[in-house]
Structure prediction request, 426 residues.
Amino acid sequence: MQTKTIDSVAGKKRVILPRAVRRQQLILATMRCISKVGLSSVTMAQVTKEAGLSRGIANLHFERKENLLIETLRFVTDEYNRGQADILNAANFSSASEQLAALVQFQFSRSVTEATKMAVWFAFYGEATSRPTYQKICADSDARAARSVRALFTQLGAMQQAAVNVGAVTDGYIALIDGLWLNLLLAPKKMTRAKAKRVAWTFLEGVFPSIKA
Amino acid sequence: MQTKTIDSVAGKKRVILPRAVRRQQLILATMRCISKVGLSSVTMAQVTKEAGLSRGIANLHFERKENLLIETLRFVTDEYNRGQADILNAANFSSASEQLAALVQFQFSRSVTEATKMAVWFAFYGEATSRPTYQKICADSDARAARSVRALFTQLGAMQQAAVNVGAVTDGYIALIDGLWLNLLLAPKKMTRAKAKRVAWTFLEGVFPSIKA
DNA sequence: GCCGAGAATGAACCCACGTTCATTCTCGGC
DNA sequence: GCCGAGAATGAACGTGGGTTCATTCTCGGC
Prediction:
């Protein structure tokens, strides 16, 4: 009478998996929960249920709830940083403008601007002021992201007729993207990915006229 | 042996004040607490202690904690909107550029960018995804702010040589300001009010060359 | 001066949630 | 096939925190 199912839907059989797999399962479940109920009311019971696992497993793999949350934040920032680095450290672009286009494309890709992920980002941003650990993770991630954007902008600036204040432009671009993400999250009916991309692009064309071609 | 002090520092005497005063006291205390410990770990005990009042008073004036939080959010958004409206609806500016200058000045004024207030803003933004009530208050506030900025930009656009896409520029400007505020909050060591103002101004000069004078 | 309305207090209550841990189960090595 | 390591479970525990409410206090009207 034992139903054979790949994922053991109704099965009572206990499944044992490596630590890394369980940790990721829990982190992903945490993200879904945060976007559903908010960082301030996520409970361990919800997360473990969402992950389809037992109550005590989170403590087994993360010790404390706070650790799970921190790892969730790290997961999201790392993923973004890896994606951005893949583009900005790549050597196989034929021009800086093409690299820039890839960057914008990436920043407003479905994967990055997915509601679940952005909800998590901003939930932690909102708590960062009062939690040194979150603060540090966010600051480090932002700094890393900013550095590589600045490098690209330096290249692009050198190609322009008029002199460009790379520092100010980088700060402005990063703020613009953050603000667009926020809008995308808070008013998805009013701001769309396509619209946001166009706005970003308008900013860039204003600063680096040569990319207009 | 009874020391007469205006604020009855050590006095045991019970003070009775009008509802509106108590409500504001509690709201201000809530803001300080949120910026200190974060929205997700604010407790009624902390807030009432911070306000120098008794445990039960919050429930007396707000019924539930949730109401106090909502009123706190409303307090912050209303204050901002009133300040912005004072500038953008004023008839006593000699030119649109002057009005624009006043807007930027206001948006990066100490009063608006004060750490306490911005922490509150972003704390609620972070929870807005999962709380329809916060979501609505934020969206309404943003929409109102955007409308009046768009009106000013329409005026400014009409003065330029080349045609300006007012919609995209408004969206961009608002996103830029939000992003700069976020930076100001998360990395106050790296981003300063003056720097932020300069970045905003650079954006505006790019879009509306005529204001450069 | 007295009284009623309602503002203010804080001890007590109760529940939700994080954490613990005794027990059960799985798997690989021998 | 047996055994030990450790992964997984979920009932039970303790506590922190929101809410209630009986009581006390203040003030304005008469």
Summary: The first helix of chain A runs from residue 19 to 37.
